[in-house]
Design brief:
The chain is mostly beta strands. Helix content is 9%, strand content 35%. It starts with 5 loop residues before the first helix and ends in a 14-residue tail after the last strand.
């Protein structure tokens, strides 16, 4: 019977496995690996997109937000089986109802009922009137 020195066995156990490395569950969370310009905060705030007077407001849910933009979910819009959703204008106002603030936005991307927006102005207070989707005062 031949024996293998302990140092040789230890080196076998600690050698990295061949092939691609699979991240472990202890790996850094996605938030820390995110390369965005500003950190995002998850939220589920009610809001509306306000367009020009010729188009009705669109209810949305703010899914996450940062100092530079947000990810929004269109409310009350069904994903079509074929074709695409109606297009949104390139620029509009986002009114966050609970905080009673609005901000000018630019559409960054759209995937189905999810959209990404970039903020184009500072947040400012907005006067709320009535209830429902048409509660934000047009100014």
């Amino acid at each position: 019977m031949t024996t293998t020195p302990i140092t040789r066995l230890q080196s076998r156990r600690t050698a990295p496995p061949a092939g691609p490395q699979v991240p472990h569950a202890e790996a850094e969370p996605a938030e820390k690996c995110d390369s965005r310009a500003a950190p995002r905060k998850t939220t589920r705030s009610g809001a509306v997109l306000r367009f020009d007077a010729s188009r009705p407001q669109q209810p949305v849910t703010v899914q996450d937000i940062s100092s530079t933009g947000a990810k929004l979910l269109l409310v009350g819009v069904a994903k079509p089986a074929f074709g695409s959703l109606p297009s949104l204008p390139a620029e509009f106002k986002l009114v966050i109802t609970n905080d009673r603030i609005e901000v000018d936005c630019k559409l960054a991307w759209q995937r189905g009922t999810e959209i990404g927006v970039l903020f184009q102005s500072a947040f400012r207070p907005v006067r709320m009137i009535g209830k429902g989707p048409d509660f934000a005062k047009r100014g």
